[in-house]
Amino acid sequence: MVHLKTDQAIDEMRAAGRVVAHALTAVREAARVGTSLLELDAVARAVLRDARATSPFLGYRPHFAPVPFPAVVCASVNDAIVHGVPGGYRLRDGDLVSIDCGARLRGWVGDAAVSFPVGRPRPADLRLIATAEAALAAGIAAAVPGNRIGDIAHAVGSVCRAAGYGIPEGFGGHGVGRGMHEDPGVPNEGPPGRGMKLRPGMVLAIEPMLIAGGGDDYACDPDGWTLRTTDGSRAAHVEHTVAITAGGPRILTAP
């Protein structure tokens, strides 16, 4: 069931989104060569604590997960696509990092992700990140009343495929509200003009995930969470929480 949000609720979600944006900025600034993923998680925890927000990630356990998620961010490095579990790994020069973070504030959730290089960036990584961000922008531009979910999916997928990148099947965006994952699902590829019609009050997480090697295959690590490319190529993941409004899309997790 899709829950339409009032203007007041969307304003509350914007407040949660600002916390997410602050956490992602702080984590990115802390992500230097030698920093561990656990230390990045601690940075995000401090931002949430100072904002009196909680994490919708911490303790989350969907049906596929063998254990609850143990952190407040997903930290995915190089060939990890999404859902990376922060651990003792220390960042190295040239790593490609994707950080996904959520915040719950006064009962409302924000959810966003960024990808960035550490140290000296590889040109191929910069192209991958730029394409992911362009796909996200295209998806957001399609998030207007009267369009359909398929229009967002087609906009995202077209940018990714035109650049020669793969898209992990079965993973994409989702509704956001009181819960981190609500209806409807928002695929990263699909035919335009299909699916649920977009209406003011809908709030969606749009999140392109790109595989540099061009294939769509992935495998799950033994931790039951981290998804990796099967060809060993690098991946990027970006995301914003976006409200559908009569005046156009409103990005709730913008800095």
Key attributes of the depicted protein:
255 residues; alpha+beta; 3-stranded antiparallel beta sheet; 4 helices; globular
Describe this entry's structure for a reader.
The protein is of the alpha+beta class and 255 residues long. The protein has helices spanning 7-30, 37-50, 123-141, 149-162; strands spanning 73-77, 80-82, 96-105, 108-117, 173-175, 182-186, 203-206, 209-211, 218-220, 227-229, 235-237, 240-245, 248-251. Strands 6-5-7-12-13 form a 5-stranded antiparallel beta sheet. It has a 3-stranded antiparallel beta sheet with strand order 1-3-4. The longest helix has 24 residues, at 7-30. The mean pLDDT is 98. One of its GO terms (molecular function) is initiator methionyl aminopeptidase activity. It is an enzyme of class 3 (hydrolase).
